[in-house]
Specification:
The chain is an alpha/beta fold and 287 residues long. It folds into 3 domains: 127 residues, Rossmann fold, CATH 3.40.50; 80 residues, no CATH class; 61 residues, Methionyl-trna Synthetase, domain 2 (Beta Complex). It contains 9 helices and 10 strands. Strands 3-2-1-10 form a 4-stranded parallel beta sheet. Helix 3 links the parallel strand 1 and strand 2. It binds zinc ion. Zinc ion binds next to loops.
Length: 287
Amino acid sequence: MKERSILQIYYYFFTLSLNNATLAPQNSVALMIMQHKQRQILVTSALPYANGPIHIGHMVEYIQTDIWVRFHKMRGHQCFYVCADDAHGTPIMLRAEEKNISPETLISEMQQEHQNDFNDFVINFDNYHTTHSSENQIFANTIYEKLDNDGHISKKTIKQFYDPNKEMFLPDRFIRGECPKCHAIDQYGDNCEVCGATYSPTDLKNPVSVISGEKPVEKESEHYFFKLSNFEEILHKWTRAGHYKRKLSISLMNGSRPDCRNGIYHVMCLILVLKFQMRQINIFTYG
Ligand SMILES: [Zn+2]
């Protein structure tokens, strides 16, 4: 990030004052612990994507979270702030290709750039890592295998657009064509920016691959789905047990209905499932 704004200067002095506050006499901290039972809190922010630099909008989230974490550490709680570069996905592969470097080189360069920016803004992560790590692979495999062994994963063959030139399946945003409703040209594969319609990429008229400009072909591929409906009852009870404000509980459960296709709620509910299974620890997700 190239911007070095006044915000950074304000933030620097703000964190200085917080750091000084943490140097308060031990008995002040002990008193705070006495007044509030010590909690174990694990905090993260949305993982920055490794295909480009961090912008000021991203940084606002990290600053807010960092302030929250510092506050809870000052209160004597055991609070860990962890984050990582999100190093997987088609845009990373394409960006690396554009720059004529390997994806591994791109994600390594980006991680260094991101960490330099975080250091400049005095964001104090307890651990900053990458999704392209052996630890992440082990945990992802473990979670997946456990879910699969317990019958919570289903497989389904779906048709998807495929770029025969690049020999790859195309995400919705990498297909453009004519809107099936208003016939506006050059619209994304998932929604029309002119009339606001949402649709499946296969509904687009005259679709083209953004990557090669070729006409994509439909091809079958096997997809894996997490059966959120298996957890509906337990989540319904748990989200209403006072862990969250009522409004958030309702919103979560509305979003987790089997007919809901919004992936965000599915991920949030997966986090809730994991949290339910790990009751000794609190997980908060910002962003
Ligand atoms: Zn349209």
